[in-house]
Write a structure and sequence with these properties.
By secondary structure, the protein is α+β, with helices and mostly antiparallel strands. The protein folds into three domains: about 70 residues, no CATH class; about 100 residues, ATP-grasp fold, B domain (D-amino Acid Aminotransferase, Chain A, domain 1); about 80 residues, ATP-grasp fold, A domain (Dna Ligase, domain 1, 2-Layer Sandwich). Helix content is about 35%, strand content about 25%. The protein is built from eleven helices and twelve strands. The chain has a five-stranded antiparallel beta sheet, with helices on both faces. The chain has a four-stranded antiparallel beta sheet with strand order 4-7-5-6, with helices on both faces. Strands 1-2-3 form a three-stranded antiparallel beta sheet, covered by helices on one side. β2 and β3 form a beta hairpin. α1 packs across α10, α4 packs across α5 and α6 crosses α7. The two termini are about 35 Å apart. About 5% of the residues have low confidence.
Length: about 300
């Protein structure tokens, strides 16, 4: 293992074990992404320029200069990025195309003045009642624009739903969101992260939680003793084929330049698409698998740019 690989894995593990993970993860996470980008540039002999002291803003010189900023890439347009970030938008666009958990969005009744026309229920109590009409317990409540399992709650009763809404609609919180999502609870047997580049799978791994200890964060890889298991090679051909077939209709509706899809199977072996992340993080994958496969993804990304395969 070379010096860069050791440094990157050490960096990833540090991020995972730091004392205030969510704050620092948001600030420092993209270093891993851009470091792998730079390694891919070096392997392919592609010139690049750093525009900040932390190497989080990188220009790549091909037929023209392409910019990578933190976790952002030049492969998604602004609208696609917004749709991926907004869980309610994603559901509205894709729920008739690909199987997803039933989802409904609710706006903070005390959102900023001037937006009253968007508020459909005038109190949190009314929202709770509406959720109980639409969904059965257990159910999921989550912030609309969140990631990494932050502000995601499994609710077993009315009081839990009320507490979850209060947490999401707390304007004093750094994780405030003016839209809360209620979602059908899926009894998950397996969960996969699938990395898409130009509508094709370039990396896949299982979020193995079979030995995990669930804490406050119910997202699989944020639990103790969870693992990211690379899905590659002959043993996984059938699984990858099934995932590819499942997600294929999605690309008829929306072109994805670069994103991570969260795909699950339930206890009846039915597949569901949970979320799309246009700025996927890779700390847990690198912790368990090293950086080799991730650098391959960035090599493919750079070759795609060189061939002008942009959306």
């Amino acid at each position: 293992m070379d010096h860069l690989s050791i440094n990157l894995i050490t960096c990833a593990v540090w991020h995972l074990n730091r004392p205030t993970p969510h704050i620092f993860m948001k600030k420092f996470q993209p270093i891993l992404n851009t470091a792998c980008l730079v390694q891919a540039c070096k392997e392919l002999g592609i010139a690049h320029t750093f525009y900040d002291n932390h190497h989080n803003l990188v220009g790549v010189h091909l037929d023209r200069e392409y910019f990578f900023a933190n976790g952002s890439t030049p492969f998604n347009d602004e609208a696609v990025g917004k749709i991926c970030k907004d869980k309610e938008f994603t559901y509205r666009i894709l729920n008739s195309t690909i199987r997803m958990p039933r989802t409904a969005g609710f706006i903070d009744p005390k959102y900023d003045p001037g937006y009253e026309g968007y508020v459909n229920l005038d109190t949190q109590e009314h929202i709770v009642s509406e959720i109980e009409e639409k969904f059965s317990y257990p159910l999921i409540i989550k912030m609309n624009s969140g990631s990494r399992g932050i502000q995601v709650f499994k609710c077993q009763d009315r009081s839990a739903v009320a507490r979850s809404l209060s947490a999401i609609f707390n304007k004093a919180s750094q994780y405030y969101d003016y839209v809360a999502i209620a979602q059908e609870y899926i009894r998950i047997k397996h969960e996969y992260r699938v990395i898409i580049l130009n509508n094709k799978i370039v990396l896949a791994y299982e979020k193995d939680f079979s030995q995990a200890t669930c804490g406050d964060n119910i997202s699989p890889l944020h639990q103790d003793n969870s693992r990211a298991i690379l899905i590659s090679g002959a043993p996984y051909t059938k699984l990858l084929g099934r995932i590819s077939q499942f997600i294929a209709p999605l690309f008829q509706k929306i072109s994805i330049g670069f994103a991570g899809l969260d795909i699950v199977t339930n206890t009846d072996n039915e597949m569901y698409r949970l979320e799309i992340n246009s700025k996927p993080g890779f700390e847990y994958f690198v912790r368990d698998n090293g950086i080799k496969e991730l650098v391959k993804v960035y090599r493919k990304m750079l070759k795609g740019l060189k061939g002008n395969k942009l959306f």
